[in-house]
Amino acid sequence: MSQYDTLSLFIDGKMTNGDSGASSDVINPSTDVVLGRVPHAKKPELDRALASADKGFQAWRKVNSFERAKVLRKAADLMRARVDDIARVLTLEQGKPFVESKIEILAGADITDWFADEGRRAYGRIIPARADGVRNMVIMEPVGVVAGFSPWNFPVTQAVRKIAAALAAGCSIIVKCPEETPGSPLGIIRCFHDAGLPDGALNLVYGVPAEISEYLIPSPIVRKVSFTGSVPVGKHLASLAAQHMKRTTMELGGHAPVLVFNDVDVDAVAKMMVATKTRNAGQVCVSPTRFFLQDKIYDKFVAEFTSGMKATKVGDGMDADTRMGPLANPRRINAMQTLIQDAQEKGGKVQTGGKRIGNQGNFFEPTVLTDVPDTARIMNEEPFGPVAVMCRFKETDEVLEKANRLPYGLASYAFTKDGKTATKVADALDSGMVTINHFGLALPEVPFGGVKDSGYGHEGGLEGLTVYMTAKFVSQMG
Ligand code: NAD
Predict the structure, then answer these.
(1) Is 329 helix (H, G, I), strand (E, B) or coil?
(2) pTM for the full model?
């Protein structure tokens, strides 16, 4: 029996298919083969999930943080023990190379361990009082029931960042994971369940995304919303949450600039950036997209980078020599074709790639564009695919203005050997995360989040825990 025969919702500690009979296909993006069907939750299942999470919160918040940590650590150990099985499911349904899937599951385990420990250190504080015998205390309490919405590009880590942080804070959570890649999140939910999490602390639903968010967010049981996905959907959900005064974390899209200065080792940077750009076929919110190359190294960088992109082996993620899998769904193929065609119509040149590969699966060539004007759509819209745009610059101030031009502000990268330039760009880049001379984002212990249209709040780091807590002030006399 395959994992796809047992796809299910997880409500109140039990796997269930729900009563409506509604479901949707799960399709292998490498072969177009239907792997199975994922059941959908409708209002009755959502009501059960809400009641269960409400009850689960009352039980879980009373478990002390040392005991909570033990459960989370056990879940992390189970993820490590089951890494091959869950990674296989992840590659089958999402397409990324098996080795990337394994890294993702192991990262999920590390994130869970990090929050297990950090939950034990959710310290409050004592504020000096103005009168004798008074104690002013700040006590950190869990927010309550969380509704989490996680996407298909990293079906495991994007879900775990919400689940582990919420649970470590003492919250319960209903998570709606992506219908297109449901098997790997279910594998992770099983780890939490088998680790001894009380029923109701974690519920998993799938369904029609808008139906679910529009039902869960207004519910008085839900106290916090965490969404990862596109800017338009994020804005819609943030406004819905605001109408009901719900706290929110929004991890939305990006359009990362890469600033490469004249003084770098061009070969090394180009090589590193090919690997970064083609990771998960570019379907990464922090994927480098706009490459700003200083005058003297422009030609060499474009040549090196283009040759690296061309040499990237594209194929089924289960083949050992595959370096880049297919795009996760046909929508991305359409998006790539539309953006590339628009860029070409506006004068852009394709140095390599630009086309779909074959007619089975969603394979797309790693693509490099040059001579693309700022008016082209790809210079303004997140491509979310394996396309990089090369641009030329002369001066630091000029490139900073270009890098900060868009309403996105998630990740930015810079490469230079000059300390002054490094400090200047780190200060001036208007984004939630900046890394200089390497790719250093998204570790469990560092905050991950954006500014401007890329959202607000953090996942990861201490900041990723506190968004699931409220500071209660207690002043006591006597
Ligand atoms: P989309 O905007 O329809 O969906 C993005 C995600 O939001 C999906 O997981 C989807 O299930 C969910 N979603 C959509 N409408 C929703 C609603 N009303 N309520 C709750 N959840 C909802 O687009 P898509 O075609 O699935 O993805 C394409 C775009 O999404 C990309 O261009 C990229 O910008 C963005 N995206 C970003 C991330 C990220 O990590 N920030 C992840 C996946 C997708």
Answers:
(1) coil
(2) 0.97
**Alpha helices (H) along 226-346:** 231-243, 266-278, 298-311, 330-345
Share of the chain above pLDDT 70, in %: 99
Kindly report the protein residue whose alpha carbon is nearest to atom 37 of ligand 1.
Answer: 229
- Give every CB contact of residue 283 below 8 A, 6+ residues apart in sequence: 153, 327, 328, 332, 384, 385
Using one digit for the tens of pLDDT, what is the confidence trace for 233-254? 999 999 999 999 999 999 999 9
The end-to-end CA distance of the chain, in Å, is 65
| pLDDT value of position 2 | 67
Q: Where are the domains of the chain?
A: 2-252+455-477, 256-443
The verdict on whether 251 is a catalytic residue reads yes
Residue 285 annotated among the catalytic residues of the structure:
yes
2-252+455-477 belongs to CATH 3.40.50.2300: no
- Edge-to-edge strands, sheet with 367-370: 349-352, 367-370, 387-393, 288-294, 256-260, 411-415, 433-436
Residue spans of the chain under pLDDT 50? none
Q: Which of 171, 177, 191, 285 is catalytic?
A: 285
DSSP state of 453: G
Dig out the tokens for 19 from the structure.
Answer: 């009563």
Q: How far is the CA of 153 from the centre of ligand 1 (A)?
A: 9
CATH classification number, 256-443, choose in 3.40.309.10, 3.40.50.150, 1.10.10.10, 3.30.465.10: 3.40.309.10
Q: For residue 209, how far is its CA from the centre of ligand 1 (angstroms)?
A: 9
Measured from CB, residues less than 6 Å from any atom of ligand 1 are 149, 151-153, 178, 209-210, 213, 228-230, 233, 237, 251-253, 285, 331, 382, 384
Distance CA 192, CA 68 (A): 11
